[in-house]
Design a protein that fits this description.
The protein is an alpha+beta fold and 527 residues long. The protein is built from 14 helices and 16 strands. A hairpin with a 5-residue loop joins strand 3 and strand 4. The protein is extended and about 100 Å long. Its cofactor is Zn(2+).
């Protein structure tokens, strides 16, 4: 508003058009100028006051929409200069709001792309449909979140009603004040060093294949006719599918139904067929490769869950140790080591899905030669192995019954935990550097981004201080409570702590001033 000398609704129209990306807006301003910036966004700034003067009370106009005469007090002129009767304007606004276009309602005039004044829309619609006017206000409010790549709703279930805003990189992992940790980019669980695309494929693969495929592979063979899995329930190698097809259990080839001591009708599985053997071997190799990475991923995930349950017992050990008369009174090294164990175990767990796709053929088949792939694979696995070894040592040290040990032995465990924590932190940093520089950084495809490693763990969002006093029907901007008014700060700004992210909470209805947004929009509308 200050930079471009604009009214509030004009500034918001610009921000909505450029999806609240202030840097992009300013870049267009510098490259193309103010006039082009306004034209593309549909902003009409009236410089001549006479053109924007209200209609005379005694004058009448002919509405070009309904072709009827209307008095000055039943007609409205927009800033673009087009004037129509209030009934036509109201019907136009109602249709656009119900179609979900309330964030950018354009003028009714032919080939006019100017955006209508929010205050006029709100005023005319509220006379006939007050609830629809509230819906219009909510759409404007939620535009800041749903159209803004730097602000997203927390994906918690049930929904906590809060939104997270990051200050810098959108490829990061955050923690809402409700306690949920998630990837800000794809809104799934925190999964670095996996990219969002890798994690999406891995989740689907695990959900579809992890247990079922393993059992089917071991206990069944596909019917050569209908391809349904068939389980053998007898000793004879001539089996029949429910579709009626008979086949040989040894090689899976289709046969006739006659079976004697010496032969099976229409079949001989003793002949070697190279193509079929290659396909079978490739399928087995792919399955064993998947099982290798999945088993290790699941092992570390299970360890993380068990170690999380052990947190209370380890803290109980600390309480017992503090009651003893030892020279060592500070046991913060235990909680610090425990936090380091949780963070590194999570990193280690998700490094296996990353390796599965990084060194497979699904994403980067043409990006590396076989020799380059093998070298990079060995480099990554060496770092992975070092991290794994030290994480297990740290886990074992923290599970020691140190509350029963002597002073000297407790000091030994303390130094071991501290040293292992530092070593593990360094190894995690090196693994991320290896992934970003040597692995993903050297590829031509830029579709894989990972959240940066944070030594202190996933950042927790801080709550913005509440300083809103909006009234329904006013021209002030409707933003979630906990934000700051545009009268106080530029739009899109907000306080945050060193973590670089903050959250906003949907406004709750109190009298007529706010409307309830703690539920999804469709539920609010229905209520």
């Amino acid at each position: 508003m200050e930079l471009l000398s604009l009214k509030e609704h004009h500034a918001r129209t610009l921000l909505i058009h450029y999806r609240w990306d202030v840097e992009k807006l300013l870049a267009v301003l510098v490259e193309k100028g103010k006039s082009c910036l306004f034209t593309e966004a549909g902003v009409t700034v009236v410089e001549n006051v006479d053109d924007d003067a209200p209609l005379s009370s005694s004058s009448t106009i002919t509405c070009d929409i309904c072709i009827e005469d209307a008095s000055a007090d039943t007609a409205t002129r927009m800033e673009c200069g087009h004037c129509f009767c209030n009934n036509c304007w109201t019907e136009h606004f109602i249709i656009k709001i119900n179609e979900g276009q309330s964030r950018r309602i354009q003028c009714m005039a032919h080939r006019c792309s100017a955006i209508c004044d929010e205050a006029i829309v709100r005023n005319l619609v509220s006379r006939r449909h007050p609830n629809l006017a509230e819906k219009f206000d909510r759409f404007l409010l939620e535009s800041y979140i749903e159209d803004n790549k730097m602000v997203k709703w927390c994906p918690s279930i049930p929904h906590c009603g809060k939104a997270i805003r990051v200050e810098e990189d959108e490829f990061c992992e955050v923690e809402c004040s409700c306690g949920l940790q998630f990837c800000f980019s794809c809104l799934s669980e925190a999964h670095s060093p996996c990219s969002c695309l890798m994690w999406e494929r891995w989740s689907k693969k695990c959900h579809d294949e992890s247990e079922t495929v393993n059992w089917i592979t071991v206990h069944t063979k596909p019917c050569p006719k209908c391809y349904k899995p068939v389980e053998k329930n007898g000793g004879c190698n001539l089996v029949s599918c429910i579709c009626g097809q008979s086949f040989c259990w040894v090689c899976g080839g289709a046969t006739g139904r006659d079976h004697t001591w010496s032969r099976i009708a229409g079949h001989s599985c003793g002949r070697y067929k190279e193509d079929r053997e290659k396909q079978t071997e490739r399928a087995k190799r792919d399955l064993y490769r998947y099982m290798h990475y999945h088993n290790r991923f699941k092992a570390h995930t299970d360890s993380f869950k068990l170690e999380s349950k052990l947190k209370e017992s380890i803290l109980d050990k600390v309480s017992v140790a503090e009651e003893r008369e030892l020279r060592l009174k500070d046991f913060s090294w235990v909680t610090n080591g425990l936090n380091r164990l949780f963070r590194s175990r999570r990193v280690l767990s998700y490094s296996y899905p990353f390796a599965f796709y990084m060194f497979g053929e699904e994403f980067f088949k043409d990006e590396m030669t076989d020799e380059e792939r093998e070298i990079k694979k060995n480099l990554f696995e060496d770092q992975q192995q070092q991290l794994e070894s030290n994480v297990e040592k740290l886990s074992m040290s923290l599970e020691e019954p140190f509350q029963q040990f002597s002073q000297d032995k407790v000091m030994d465990i303390r130094m071991r935990v501290i040293n292992l924590s530092v070593t593990i932190d360094t190894l995690c940093q090196k693994m991320y550097e290896c992934i970003e520089s040597d692995l993903l950084g050297s590829l031509h495809l830029g579709t894989h981004h990972i959240a940066p490693y944070k030594s202190k763990g996933i950042e927790r969002a801080s709550e913005l201080s509440s300083c809103w006093n909006t009234k329904l029907g006013s021209t002030d901007e409707y933003l979630p409570s906990g934000g700051t008014s545009e009268h106080d700060r530029p739009s899109g700004s907000g306080s945050s702590d060193d973590s670089g992210c903050s959250y906003r909470k949907r406004a709750k209805k109190e009298g007529g001033g706010f409307f309830d947004l703690n539920l999804p929009a469709e539920i609010v509308d229905r209520n």
